[in-house]
Amino acid sequence: MQAFKNFRIYFLRGMAALLPTILTIWIFVQCYIFVQEKISVHINRGVVRLVVAVVDWYPPITNEQKRAYAIRQEPALQNDPRALARRLDDPDIIRGTRIEVAEKYWVTGRGQIAGIIIAIIGVVFIGAFLYSVMGRTMYRLFENALMQLPLVRKVYPYIKQITDFILANRQISFTKVIALQYPRKGTWSIGLVTGSGLAKIGQAVDKEFLTVFVPTSPTPFTGYVIITPKEDTIELDMTIEEALRFTISGGVISPAQREAFRTLANKASE
Q1: What does DSSP say about strands 177-181 and 233-235: parallel, antiparallel, or unpaired?
Q2: Cα separation, 14 vs 26, whole angstroms
Q3: How many of the other CB atoms lie within 10 Å of CB of 47?
Q4: Backbone φ and ψ of 193, nearest 5°
Q5: Which of 62, 72, 141, 260 could form a disulfide with 236 if both were Cys (CB 3.0 to 4.6 A apart)?
Q6: CA–CA gap between residue 235 and residue 176 (Å, rounded)
Q7: What residue numbers bound the domain in which 193 lies?
Q8: Are residues 36 and 107 in the same domain?
Q9: What is the phi-psi region of residue 250: left when phi exceeds 0, alpha when psi lies from -120 to 50, beta otherwise?
Q10: Is the pLDDT higher at 267 or at 45?
Q11: Are 101 and 191 within one domain?
Q12: How many domains does the chain have?
């Protein structure tokens, strides 16, 4: 029985140590596969066709390669050596063979990484262009035109909000950690103060309000925005990082956080 208990403890501890690394690697691998299969392969194919159209010596090809390509395109040539020999000088056969040979390296071989590099460079150039006055103006015109499309205007704004939240350099500034009674009186939740509330609400009821972000567990980047009277909150002696760790861990209290919750208990009982 003790051996089974130890096995369970060691297994769970090992999983806790390995899972973050495994999941991180898995996410990056899946991102790489997506970019490679959905973006890079098409970039490489376009580059190969451009190079073949512009450069007449790359890649070098042999008659055997042209013969194999011609037979794959026209199987009947396999039984007609004379017709096959004439087809070897056909520009379409030569061009198709060169594309096929080049794609074996650049699309399905070691050179496929070039598509990812080109995609990254392209994104950087687009970003640099959009930083300019002309770029911002053109982007606004593009968005305005996009919003005129009946179905697109129903979806695009929400997708843009999500991408702006994830990728924008702007950061939500949390000033302090508080406790507030949410979602009902007597139930305390941790909140991160983001502002001083809406002025009109404060003027209407003659109270000072706080705008509070209440994170959800175990993903603190989602949550609820609450506007609550300042007098109904308790400021905690806890850093933003400690509050986020508390949320992610599902409420596991570290020694450094015990004092903050002791303060909450004392003030809540007053």
Answers
A1: antiparallel
A2: 18
A3: 17
A4: -75, 125
A5: 260
A6: 8
A7: 177-269
A8: yes
A9: left
A10: 45
A11: no
A12: 2
Token pair of 117, please?
């590099």
Looking at the fold, whether 184 and 92 belong to one and the same domain comes out as no
What confidence score (pLDDT) does residue 170 get? 54
Helices (H), the chain: 2-35, 41-54, 63-73, 81-87, 91-106, 113-131, 133-146, 152-167, 199-205, 240-248, 255-269
Structure tokens that stand for 20 in this block: 């973050």
Residues above pLDDT 70, as percent of the chain: 90
Q: Is 173 left (phi over 0), alpha (psi -120 to 50) or beta?
A: beta
- Helices 41-54 and 113-131: crossing angle, nearest 10°? 90
pLDDT band of 92, cuts 50, 70, 90:
very high
pLDDT of residue 53: 92
Q: Encode pLDDT of 252-264 as tens digits.
A: 766 555 666 666 6
Q: Are 37 and 111 in a shared domain? A: yes
The secondary structure of residue 118, as a DSSP letter, is: H
Entry field: residues in the chain = 270
pLDDT bracket for residue 106 (50, 70, 90): very high
CB under 8 Å to 101, separation ≥6 — which residues? 59, 61, 65
- Cross-strand bridge partners of residue 227: 211
Same-domain check for residues 26 and 125: yes
Mean predicted confidence (pLDDT) in 72-96: 91
> Do 100 and 34 share a structural domain?
yes
* Selected residue with higher pLDDT from 95 and 157: 95
Please indicate, yes or no, whether residues 194 and 116 belong to a single structural domain of this protein.
Answer: no
In a domain, 263, yes or no: yes
